[in-house]
Specification:
The protein is mostly beta strands. The chain has helices at 2-21, 61-66, 76-84, 194-197; strands spanning 71-72, 91-100, 112-113, 116-120, 124-131, 139-140, 149-153, 155-156, 160-168, 180-185, 188-193, 199-205, 212-221, 227-238, 241-250, 255-265, 281-289, 294-305, 308-319, 325-335, 343-351.
């Protein structure tokens, strides 16, 4: 893992230096024609993706339908929580949790009851979004009896459900020490400290039927953080390469756009601009706004979890039209078998001005 972190640091530096040196080379002009699938390659700069605007959803209706916006939760406590984050010095935490068959499984017939609750030991806990909830089986139990706890019912089969929480650590009379957030859904239960929620991304197995829980969170003082989340499908095309598609989500859980890209092991020795050479695990992609306007180019790396070649981590940098660094992204992924079209990834993105040396 230390080697992976060292390589990712070198990747970021090499990208910035090479792009700075080529600023006047006019490699790709805004407004160029969108790149065709045949031009996409791990051996090209940014994988062959350019800074052109696109049709909404990259012109793919299935992307817009498969990655539809999450529904706003009818939680009155969330409105109270949102209004309180304008108060100076109040820490806020945004926690996005999904559970079930994260990769999707069209053959699954079992129904799993995930009904449970989320609770904090201090502050205010609100629900901003419900994710893939079905009205017949999934709902928040309202009205709530406490601003610190929310109960819910959830049943999954072929796919997953989820919730986006906001935690406001606004108890002035709370005892010193770290706050705690407890999440219990069916057979899964775990307590996180508020300090853990400041920067967290994970996938945890729940049973031997392929059910899992993914948690991505981010802390920010006073106001919604300058960043958000992303989620979608991490698809394996062969043993060591594939593609990803999904959505770009703001800090309050609203769809902000779509992204797509490629991942794999780079085949060439180098491409002459300082990019890593043969065998390096890289990813490249492109993010667009909902209306198709260019949002950013993504470049980074990926790796396997210590105990599996079917799940792992991803991390990198995203760039603007002029190849300037806009921020960083980080997440986790889970893949299916080569060619089955299944997979899942989940992470967070943060604008450059929000970065700290600890990240």
């Amino acid at each position: 893992m230390k080697q992976a972190k060292h390589w990712l640091w070198l990747l970021s530096v090499s990208l910035v230096l090479s792009l700075w040196a080529c600023q006047n080379a006019d490699l790709v002009n805004p407004g160029d024609e969108p790149v065709s699938e045949e031009e996409i390659s791990l051996d090209k700069e940014f994988g062959g993706f350019d800074t052109s605007d696109e049709l909404p959803g990259f012109g793919d209706q299935s992307i817009q339908s498969d990655f539809a916006a999450d529904e706003t939760a009818a939680d009155p406590v969330a409105a109270e929580a949102e209004s309180s984050i304008v108060d100076s010095g109040v820490p806020a935490y945004f926690v996005r949790i999904t559970w079930g068959k994260l990769q999707g499984d069209s053959a699954a017939s079992d129904r799993v009851d995930w009904s449970g609750y989320a609770e904090v030991n201090r502050g205010t806990l609100g629900v901003l979004k419900v994710i893939r909830f079905e009205r017949s089986t999934d709902r928040l139990l309202l009205p709530r009896e406490s601003r610190k706890r929310v109960d819910f019912t959830s049943v999954t089969s072929r796919h997953y459900d989820g919730l986006l929480f906001i935690i406001i650590d606004n108890d002035t009379a709370a005892a010193d020490g770290d706050g705690q957030f407890t999440f219990t859904a069916g057979a899964y239960s775990r307590t996180f400290s508020f300090s853990e929620l400041d920067s967290l991304e994970l996938i945890e197995s729940v049973d031997d039927q392929g059910n899992e829980v993914s948690v991505v969170s981010r802390g920010k003082m006073v106001q919604p953080f300058a960043g958000g989340f992303f989620s979608g499908r991490w698809i394996r095309k062969s043993d060591r390469r594939g593609r990803f598609i999904g959505r770009w989500i703001d800090s309050m859980g609203n769809n902000a756009g779509y992204l797509k890209g490629i991942w794999g092991e780079r085949g060439n020795a180098n491409n002459g601009n300082g990019m890593p050479g043969r065998g390096k695990r890289v990813l490249f992609g492109k993010y667009i706004h909902l209306d198709g306007r260019f949002g950013g180019l993504l470049a980074g790396g990926w790796g396997y979890a210590d105990d599996s070649d079917r799940r792992g981590w991803l991390k990198g940098v995203w760039f603007g039209r002029q190849r300037q660094v806009l921020g960083h992204f980080k997440g986790v992924w889970k893949s299916g078998r080569a060619g089955d079209g299944r997979g899942f990834f989940h992470g967070r993105w943060v604008k450059k001005q929000q970065q700290s040396e600890s990240q």
